Amino acid sequence: MMPSQETDLTSISPTRLWVPKHVMITRAAADLPHTAEIIRRCERAGVDDIRFLTGNALTGLRGASDRETYASAKNTLAVVVAPPSALKPQPIPPSADWRIDLARGCPAHCQYCYLAGSLQGPPVTRVYANLDDVLDGIRTHADRGSVTRGTLERGDEGTTFEMSCYTDPLGIETVTGSLAAAISRVGAGEFGSDVQLRFTTKFDDVGQLVTLDHGRRTRIRFSVNAADVANRFEGGTARMPARLAALRAVATAGYRVGLTIAPVMPIPGWREQYGALLDDISGAVAGIPDLDLTAEIITHRFTPASKEVLLGWYPRTKLEMDEDSRSQKRSKFGGVKYVYPKQTMTEMRGWFTEELERRLPAARPLYWT
After folding, report:
1. Cα(first)–Cα(last) distance of the chain, in Å?
2. Are 209 and 183 in contact (CB under 8 A)?
3. Which residues face 23 on adjacent strands?
4. For residues 356 and 278, is the Cβ–Cβ distance under 8 A?
5. Which helix (H) or strand (E) holds 201?
């Protein structure tokens, strides 16, 4: 579905663009067609340091200190080949039927980063050059799955594929083009008519996306939060007004859209702040025809491993990570997450359930966690 000719969306200027200082291309990725597109985009963005490695190992990433290593890694894009283990789609409840990865790593500086502790080594952003192999997972897993496929609640979404488990694909799109390629190919029906892509972003570079023939087969969700959380803990991202402007732009262009309200925190005055956020969202989507808007609400949680990594990255953070004030939640594999106590969770969930219905009735809640 193309945007209305009466709506000029192509003049959208992003407020936040990430351009790496360093680009490393592994030997295995060097001659792949998508690598040429990445190089073209990086050169156009003004990247001077583009290096072709003689092997496939990423070397020279560590600095004299953890902070130096972090800073250098966050300014580096590595063009690599996704290994076979990364090509098989994995179940990803409650978000989607399957997960496919366009990249791993994120250029933002969120002090609660969900990737901390789950990715190994310095936080370099790795984009996969074998894009055809990555997207082939859509072909092999269409008409399979149990989160949306065949369910009463979300069956209209078809088989869903989440692209933002290990990256913010819009945050790196200006130098990769992977997202536009995926949206265009799915929109053209290359993988069938009953599949849907979905991703979450904290960025606002949607100028190219609104020009694509997306076939209404991609849901773009914007990660949103209360002002005190977003302004304090989400470094290197588009500010909330810019995200909401981008939300309106892609919804006007016919995309299915969504809200990822996360991570919800019971900060002082949280009801007033989240209430103001819902009111701002309501204003942003007002008057959009055929609006398809969902809401996913995720409370803040952390693991012992992620806390250790985050304190190394952000030693002066004011983010609350006090195990004694939290409840433990264990996974089926024995892992531990620290979540808010039951009473706090119940109170916040009740408030969001009521206020979403009252302030933003257009939003269809998908899950709370």
Report:
1. 32
2. yes
3. 50, 77
4. yes
5. strand 195-201
Whole-number Å distance between alpha carbons of 75 and 77: 7
Which residues make Cβ contacts (< 8 Å) with residue 104, sequence separation at least 6? 119, 125, 126, 166, 167
Give dist(CA 101, CA 186) in Å, integer: 15
19-41 pLDDT, tens digit per residue, is 999 999 999 999 999 999 999 99
- Inter-residue contact 225 to 262 (CB < 8 Å): yes
Compute CA 133 distance to the chain's CA centroid, rounded to the nearest angstrom: 21
Give me the residue label for tokens 């819009």. 170
Secondary structure percentages of the chain, helix, strand, coil, to 5? 35, 20, 45
Residues paired with 234 in a beta bridge: 110
DSSP-derived pairing of the beta strands 234-235 and 256-264: unpaired
Task: Rounding to the nearest 10 degrees, give the CA dihedral for residues 261, 263, 265, 268.
Answer: -70
Which single residue is written with the structure tokens 């985050």? 310
- Alpha helices (H) in the chain, listed in sequence order: 33-44, 66-74, 84-87, 131-141, 173-176, 178-187, 227-233, 240-252, 270-285, 304-313, 342-359
As given in the structure block, the two tokens for residue 320 are 């609350």
Cis peptide before 122 (omega within 30 of 0): no
Q: Which tens digits make up the pLDDT trace of 303-362? A: 999 999 999 999 999 999 999 999 999 887 778 999 999 999 999 999 999 999 999 999
DSSP string, 266-326: --TTHHHHHHHHHHHHHHHHTT-TT--EEEEEEE--B-HHHHHHHHHH-TT------GGGS
User: Which residues make beta-bridge pairs with 329?
Assistant: 337
Please list, in sequence order, all residues whose beta carbon lies within 8 angstroms of the beta carbon of residue 220, skipping any fewer than 6 positions away. 170, 198, 199, 201, 206, 209, 247, 250, 255, 256, 257, 258
**C-beta separation of 131 from 34 below 8 A:** yes
Q: Does pLDDT of 6 surpass 70?
A: no
Both tokens assigned to 11: 């003049």
Q: Say if residue 1's pLDDT is above 60.
A: no
Q: Rounded mean pLDDT of the chain?
A: 94
Quote the pLDDT of residue 59.
87
Q: What's the pLDDT at 4?
A: 43
